[in-house]
Amino acid sequence: QAMGCWWQLLLGLWAVPPTWAGRELLNICMNAKPHKPAPSPEAKLYEECIPWKDSACCTANTSWEAHLDVSLLYNFSLVHCGLMMPDCQKHFLQAICFYECSPNLGPWIQRVGRSGWGWAERILDAPLCREDCEQWWADCRTSYTCKSNWHGGWTWSRGKPRCPARALCHPFLHYFPTPADLCEKIWSNSFKASPEHRTSGRCLQKWFKPAGGNPNVAVARLFASPASSWGLSDTLLAFSLFLLLLSR
């Protein structure tokens, strides 16, 4: 009789639709300030945030604040070690716009604790295309920083984050010897350096030309549905074989 109950439970699990998890991961915004509750069109996004104008998790005001020398979003300055080369700064502005505006990060959203808005969230290991990491790294090699992880560990002075004591300013190459180091370390593994190319459809582009459409929509769909359903199927198959052996 107990074995019959197990089989009924197993059959119930097999009946779960294979795409149940994927639907909740598409076209959403993470629960994090200053993200919107849900993506919607924003006709007046500023400069590097323009690609997300058709469906954005950021407001026009957020996109403007992201471009200030001392960003009002995080009260943080990209030029904490002196002037940053324009091409390097552009990559960071694109990365910030990508993080704040993209509605295609659902498969990589992780809960990190409670806040006044409920569960606070961030992204983890979002796979950036190989070209995105390599060009970012190449254009920043001659700019300076004092830390490999910008997510925390700063010394706060007069309301602004500054380099910690004994953290010397060096060219990016000192703190990020490879493109993967830059993509993965800069914001506590929010991004992952993917070996895939932009043309593969299996990695995210942190910026794209608006006229060509958003290539990350298809990538989010790819990561949202098959992995979870196949993982569940494999687990159920192993469990089925285990019960079959016990019933003999």
From TrEMBL:
Keywords noted in UniProt: Disulfide bond, Signal
GO molecular function, a single term: signaling receptor activity
GO cellular component annotations of the record: external side of plasma membrane
Key word Amino-acid biosynthesis present: no
Signal peptide (from-to): 1-21
Disulfide bond found in the keyword field: yes
Gene Ontology biological-process entries: cell adhesion; fusion of sperm to egg plasma membrane involved in single fertilization; sperm-egg recognition
Protein name: Folate receptor-like domain-containing protein
InterPro entries found in the cross-reference section: Folate_rcpt (IPR004269), Folate_rcpt-like (IPR018143)
Stated family: Belongs to the folate receptor family.
Pfam families according to UniProt: Folate_rec
Residue ranges annotated for the Folate receptor-like domain, each copy included: 28-205
